[in-house]
Amino acid sequence: QSALTQPASVSGSPGQSLTISCTGTSSDVGKYDFVSWYQQHPGKAPKLIIFEGTKRPSGVSDRFSGSKSGNTASLTISGLQTDDEANYYCCSYAGGPTYVFGSGTEVTVL
Amino acid sequence: EVHLVESGGGLVQPGGSLRLSCAASGFTFSDYYMYWVRQIPGKGLLPVSRISGGGIVTTYADSVKGRFTISRDNAKKTVYLQMDSLRAEDTAVYYCAGESDYKFDYWGQGTLVTVSS
Q1: How far, in Å, CA of A20 to CA of A110, rounded?
Q2: What is the share, in percent, of chain A residues with pLDDT greater than 90?
Q3: A9 min Cα distance to partner chain B (Å)
Q4: Do B50 and A101 touch (CB under 8 A)?
């Protein structure tokens, strides 16, 4: 199972919006509505911010939103803040016991 | 508050063994599949093993099958990863994570395993 494809880095200014794409295949992202997104600050544990493609856990800012079209899922961060600087990983269920993660995207707030 | 605290990482020679532990608190441990997920510094995340809530079902990535063994003690709310025949390519930060309903709800801070002579 190959890793999901994400851009290596994206950047934006405070207050702007940015979108991170996550491209898989018809066997993972395209087949299941179980894409999740994780935020990881350097040296810290990953944190769940989106699950089932569009849902936010309790306590996660509504500035984070998720969507999916075909084999590509997306994470949008609106009203960019300095604390949003982190690495972001998508993850898709791929059937049976299998989950596949994305390669990760570094977000820089200019 | 949920806590997952890993321990047991360190420097080991190729061919050696380590046993990682992950102590959980703040959630119903036995309701969760527990995973070990590794991250090579600067790289992505790779699940290497998982164990069902009752400890009956275990799964391994092909890269560690036959060398790693996952187990859990629900009374102690702890999951373990016995790593044998370690290789340089096993060098990574190892996270334990709790999975339920197709998402990884909880993560530990990670423990670094370095395999080098």
Answers
A1: 16
A2: 91
A3: 13
A4: no
